[in-house]
Amino acid sequence: MTDVREVLTRVHREEWARVVATLARRIGDLDVAEEMTAEAFAAAVERWTADGVPPNPGAWLTTTAYRRAVDRIRRESRREEKHREALMLADTPEPLGVIDDDRLRLIFTCCHPALAVEARVALTLRLVGGLTVPEIARAYLVQEAAMSRRITRAKTKIKAAGIPYRVPSRDDLPARITGVLAVLYLIFNEGYLTSDPAKEAVRADLTGEAIRLTRLVRTLLPDDHEVTGLLALMLLTEARRPARVSATGELVVLAEQDRSAWDRDLIAEGHALVRACIATGRPPGRYQILAAINAVHTDARDARDTDWSQVAALYDHLVRVDPSPIVRLNRAVAVAELDGPQVALAEVEGLPLDGYHAYHATRAELLRRMGRGGEAREAYDRAIELAGNSAETAYLRRRRDQLGGW
């Protein structure tokens, strides 16, 4: 049983989005696609334990899910027309659009402009990223029940509005891209530092899938520099993944990472993309600026060589584009390096981020540098309470315990 569950965990990471996307295309119903995919995985626990893991787990899951979907449609007479359409779709080739990729088409379906931006992102994280509702809720800093309702409403809206399951025409792409990029970035971030303590700290399957899909989107929109910026940002961040978690399972912060372990090929590609964006002479968007910040970090062979004045200047620009509290929090880290922890703390205090673990972790580090050990300990405790990742929790506990008798 243990071996089968381990295989299922891996297959779920690799195949969930593909099965949901294939089913959604064939039957045209996101609710049924998701439910039958979940049923297929549940059936696999029993069948694979008794009969062994099939040679092609993805194909087995897709076939099982599709058969269950057809059986369900047959049982519901009010969906008789949908049943006939599903059977026809199973045997009739359909136009593939600009790019033949079911998961990319599913993303564009979930990111239709008829849906609120928050709903687009949440729904796609669930169906394409395979994230649980609690994971998505943590990413949005909202309650699980509220996120569950948001996802349900989005699926209902897609069904009621008859939103097509396809990659839109090239003329329609620009209006759809904002939500798509937000989704891809959140999927990547969930993989780069998982929010669920029960899962591995870093999920290369999610970061890899986000990069793959972003490359496809760039093929669709080669002149959209925010797409290029997002791809550069992902590559420069992914390049640091081998040094992100220690052998003991503890998060390794940027300043302490073994930079010789970074992927220099990804860094070179990311830098080239950043330079290409700069060469256009156009005002950069959020992802381009974030990519440029990461280019500065990855250009330094040693943390002490980091050009913090350039990082701070880029964050100043980013604040004008995206004046969110989280951007201001990240800017304060650069300010601390330039102007000292007192100045940075003054900018951090009062930000509306009490439910965000990184806010308290940042305060803890600033207070620590100022010699205010008791307050730093309290901030570490709050950060540990809110952190969802085991690697990050281990790091925060070590930093707190190093305070000793302060």
From TrEMBL:
Can you give the residue ranges of the RNA polymerase sigma-70 region domain? Answer: 18-79
Q: Does the keyword Repeat apply?
A: no
Record key words, sorted: Sigma factor, Transcription, Transcription regulation
In the UniProt record, does the keyword Lyase occur?
no
* Residues annotated as domain DUF6596: 176-276
Q: Where is the RNA polymerase sigma factor 70 region 4 type domain?
A: 107-158
InterPro entries listed in its UniProt record: DUF6596, RNA_pol_sigma-70_dom, RNA_pol_sigma70_r2, RNA_pol_sigma70_r4_t2, RNA_pol_sigma_r2, RNA_pol_sigma_r3/r4-like, TPR-like_helical_dom_sf, WH-like_DNA-bd_sf
Pfam entry (one)? DUF6596
User: Which family does the record claim for this protein?
Assistant: Belongs to the sigma-70 factor family. ECF subfamily.
Q: What is this protein called?
A: RNA polymerase sigma-70 factor (ECF subfamily)
**Taxonomic source organism:** Micromonospora echinospora (Micromonospora purpurea)
